[in-house]
Design a protein that fits this description.
The chain is of the alpha+beta class. About 30% of the residues lie in helices and about 30% in strands. The chain is built from four helices and nine strands, in the order αβαβββαβββββα. Strands 1, 2, 3, 4, 5, 6 and 7 form a seven-stranded mixed β-sheet that branches. A two-stranded antiparallel sheet has the order 8-9. The longest helix has 22 residues. The chain is globular.
Length: about 180
């Protein structure tokens, strides 16, 4: 699995989580200072100088994963949001650890909670996560239709086929083609 495929895979899983309403890749500050930000946000950031370590058939990618939500005026929901952040990041990467055929997560993962003023006063958690991918399947041989994302509790079932269409959309496209539409 290459870097593009890995980020798209993490995005697909994150967006299945019931608390994640948006996924952003890149700078936390850039995305969360936008007036269009949609909370609970999951942001995946690569360090400025991200080194990819390749050892035999294994590549190691390091990311900072963040979960951010808006605080109430009195910040009475701070601990709830921070707890949600820790749990959401843990559940997403635990899912990968337990289900991905070509990726694994280095543990332990250390979480840091925070409050921060972006476009809104926010709280959440972040963690530095290292993902190991197996290169026995080449980048050209890796297909998204081979990934079945089982539902995270409280979500609907989605199958990611080619990173652009869900199974239902592909079924509709095939039906249209067969019908001559």
């Amino acid at each position: 699995m290459n870097l593009v495929q890995l980020v798209k895979y993490i995005e697909a899983i994150a967006l299945e989580h019931p608390l994640v309403k948006s996924f952003y890749e890149g700078s936390v500050y850039e995305h969360l200072n936008s007036k269009e930000v949609k909370y609970g946000a999951f942001v995946l950031t690569q360090p400025d100088f991200n080194s990819v370590v390749k050892d035999d058939n294994v590549k190691r990618y390091t990311f900072q994963a963040s979960y951010i939500d808006r605080l109430t005026e009195d910040e009475s929901n701070k601990l709830v949001i921070q707890t949600d952040g820790i749990n959401t990041i843990h559940e997403i990467f635990n899912y990968i650890k337990n289900n991905a055929q070509t990726a694994d997560i280095e543990i332990p993962i250390t979480f840091t909670t925070f409050t921060q003023k972006f476009a809104d006063k926010c709280g959440g958690a972040f963690a530095t996560v290292t993902v190991e991918t197996n290169d026995e399947i080449s980048d050209c041989d890796f297909y998204y239709e081979d990934i079945v994302i089982e539902p995270i509790p409280g979500t609907s079932h989605t199958i990611v086929l080619d990173n652009y269409y869900t199974k239902v959309e592909v079924d509709d496209i095939i039906a249209d083609i067969e019908a001559g539409v």
